Amino acid sequence: MKAILVLTSTNPFFEEELKSLCEACHIEIGDVVIQKLEKINPATYIGKGKIEEIKLKLQDEMIIFDDELTPLQVKNLTDLLETEVTDRTDLILRIFDERAKTKEAKLQVEIARDQYLLPRLVGMQEHMSHQQGGSGFRGSGEKQIELDRRIIARKLARSRKELAEIVKQRQVQRRRRKNNQIPVIALVGYTNSGKSTLLNTLCPDKQKKVFEKDMLFATLETSTRHIKIKNHDCLLTDTVGFIERLPHHLIQAFRSTLEEVKEANLLLHVVDTSFEDYQMQIETTNEVLKSLGVENTPMIYVYNKIDLNKYAYIQPQSPYVFISAKYKRGLDLLEDEISHLLFKDYEVFELSIPYSQGEDFKYLQQHCYVKEIEYLEKSIYLKIEARKQEIKNYLHYCLKH
Ligand SMILES: Nc1nc2c(ncn2[C@@H]2O[C@H](COP(=O)(O)OP(=O)(O)OP(=O)(O)O)[C@@H](O)[C@H]2O)c(=O)[nH]1
Ligand SMILES: [Mg+2]
């Protein structure tokens, strides 16, 4: 399939990104048409003259708009151009569709797709009623749309319920993890910035590699790995990447996946330094985080891909490190920074708690990271990692320190 791309901005970044999205959808790129618009035409998005220009170029390509079109615009443009007309949101949904592997990801994508479709059908219906003068006459096309709408609405309700079940299970898992008090670090950042590569670099277990690739949205599901930072145990979570103008249906649908980010103790914000407009990528990521309600979690800016030597012009935001996840450069500094933020003043304590002191044992188990636990004949042996201050009332159980 080949496509003509229609943009309303001369910013080369938008063109580049739309092309990458097409590539990820296996769509060949034909002409690129740009019209700078003062005002968007509600009926056809672009103006009459531009439509004529596209018509002249058109052979058998489809047309892809860089912005999200309204249902009416899609309908009118399809009629005028007599070919498939679609938009950037649809491309993103197609990519997610193809990449979704787990049941949860599949459901999330399905929900986003149905949410995208539903108002489109309704819009189409309104459009048809207008055409028929609103006389109350219901043509067969309109009936079909109403039928489709009901089917989709029903499917949407079913998928939402199914997803809620999965989310519940995930919450149980997370609660278990939380009780264990092991700090969670989440990787966040623009798509293709190198989050999965960094997870693979930091996780020593070669069996547990996650998928990394030079394409948009390589990762859709969340993976969590156990890693050690300066001998401290932590969990590192990799998740879906963000993109500028991320369709809000997607954010909504992926909310449960992104809950992991919400509950993290520390965020590593991975930035691709080889990308000229890196500042925009940072802003996009921070905006998405804000929309998820993540605002006060400590964050380290991880300026990645320094091996490509394009980082000289970067003005870093603190706290930060410069690394190459792929060639393992700067990782010591990253570990220093993480341990400074997460494990300052942390120490390992070995305690022996008599069985009669069940309450104290319960408190420590719930509030500290437990590295080892052994039920001995007369007492419980506990090896924990904590700040001295936090367990000051329990220091008399210490075996040695
Ligand atoms: N040169 C160079 N390339 C890197 C580095 N880190 C990652 N990459 C490449 O960047 C591409 C994207 O890497 P991923 O780790 O898949 O990126 P991601 O952030 O997980 O992307 P999404 O899952 O799509 O959000 C891959 O081709 C990696 O090999 C690096 O330090 N240097
Ligand atoms: Mg990834």
Class by alpha and beta content: alpha/beta
Q: How do the strands line up in the largest sheet?
A: 6-7-5-8-9-10
Taking all Cα atoms into account, the compactness measure Rg is: 26 Å
User: Total strand count, please?
Assistant: 14
Beta-strand fraction estimate? 15-25%
The small-molecule ligands in this entry are:
guanosine-5'-triphosphate, magnesium ion
Q: What's the tally of helices?
A: 12
Instruction: Write the CATH fold name of the largest domain.
Output: Rossmann fold
User: What is the overall silhouette?
Assistant: elongated
Name of the CATH first level of the largest domain = Alpha Beta
Give the second-level CATH assignment, the architecture of the largest domain.
3-Layer(aba) Sandwich
Order of helix and strand elements from N to C terminus: EHEHEHEHHHEHEEHHEHEEHEHEEE
Name the poorly predicted regions. none
CATH superfamily of the largest domain: P-loop containing nucleotide triphosphate hydrolases
Please indicate the count of domains: 4
The CA-CA distance between the termini, in Å, is 69 Å
Helical proportion?
Answer: 40-55%
Give average pLDDT, whole number. 88
Major sheet details: 6 strands, mixed
Give a quick summary of the entry.
The chain is α/β, with parallel strands linked by helices and 401 residues long. It has helices spanning 12-24, 48-57, 71-81, 88-99, 103-131, 140-179, 195-202, 248-253, 255-262, 278-291, 331-342, 358-367; strands spanning 2-7, 28-34, 62-65, 85-87, 184-189, 223-229, 232-238, 266-272, 299-304, 320-322, 346-354, 369-375, 379-387, 398-400. The longest helix is centred in the middle third of the chain and has 40 residues, at 140-179.
